[in-house]
UniProtKB/TrEMBL annotation:
GO biological process: carbohydrate metabolic process; pentose-phosphate shunt
Protein name (record): Ribulose-phosphate 3-epimerase
UniProt-listed SUPFAM superfamilies: Ribulose-phoshate binding barrel
The UniProt record lists the keyword Zinc: yes
Record CDD domains: RPE
Binding-site residues for substrate, renumbered to this chain: S14, H73, G149, F150, G151, G152, G180, G200, T201
Record key words, sorted: Carbohydrate metabolism, Cobalt, Isomerase, Manganese, Metal-binding, Zinc
The protein's Enzyme Commission number: 5.1.3.1
Family assignment from sequence similarity: Belongs to the ribulose-phosphate 3-epimerase family.
Catalytic activity: D-ribulose 5-phosphate = D-xylulose 5-phosphate
Length: 231
């Protein structure tokens, strides 16, 4: 798990929701609007029924934004297959799905050795306890609040019990939430203990993305401050 420092708020727009025909410009716009990182959804048409993009896109983006943190959400079967390619392309975080992996320790080692942070994602139907035998291997745990690979779903508030469990048991862990997160749902996410916030159309579709990012950040920072005062 992460080091013994309190997790800080990080907002990561999901660029799959942006205009992919001018992706580099859209990414720059998100960073200039105050985003801390970019969340890139890689779907293979097998683990999830959708198909998006792979490491060639990341490799093209990296020279245009050398200092930006790329969080790769790998919604793929055989996630071990793409570790080297993504590291070579310039990814910073490699988040695989626990449901798609057979040898979790080996994959985590491979990701670490390639120089990326290790993230693990849980679908809504996967119990949070599934990760416990491997908890010291992850830097980030991603709790999905929609079913991955399908658009237009509503935020699943009942997933917040997973976030609360993780925050209670692993106070220094980076906990990421993805799916239906925006101004209307951020408070419940923040209060549950998430500190890495993925948001799609709520940010990319906004007339003023910087205003939405500021609102999300304010909610999370207030919740972090409150929880530290209560300790």
């Amino acid at each position: 798990m992460s080091g013994h420092t309190h997790p800080c708020c990080k907002i990561g727009p999901s660029i799959l929701c942006a205009d992919l025909s001018c992706l580099a410009d859209e990414c720059r716009k998100m960073i200039h609007s105050g985003a801390d990182y970019l969340h890139l959804d890689v779907m293979d048409g097998h683990f999830v029924p959708n198909l998006t993009f792979g490491h060639p896109i990341v490799k093209c983006l990296r020279p245009k934004m050398p200092d930006i943190y790329f969080d790769m959400h790998m919604m793929v079967q055989n996630p071990e297959k793409w570790v080297e390619s993504m590291a070579d392309a310039g990814a910073n975080q490699y988040t695989f799905h626990i449901e798609a992996c057979e040898d979790i320790p080996a994959l985590c080692r491979k990701i670490q050795e390639s120089g990326m942070r290790v993230g693990v994602g849980l679908k809504p139907g996967t119990p949070v306890e599934t990760i416990l035998p491997y908890s010291d291997l992850f830097d980030v745990v991603l709790i999905m609040t929609v079913e991955p690979g399908f658009g237009g779903q509503s935020f699943m508030e009942d997933m917040m019990s997973k976030v609360q469990y993780l925050r209670t048991n692993f106070p220094y862990l980076d906990i990421e939430v993805d799916g239906g997160v925006g101004p209307n749902t951020i408070d419940v996410v923040a209060e549950a203990g998430a500190n890495m916030i993925v948001s799609g159309t709520a940010i990319t579709g906004a007339s003023d993305p910087s205003q939405v990012i500021a609102l999300l950040r304010n909610s999370v920072e207030n919740a972090i401050q409150k929880s530290q005062l209560e300790r």
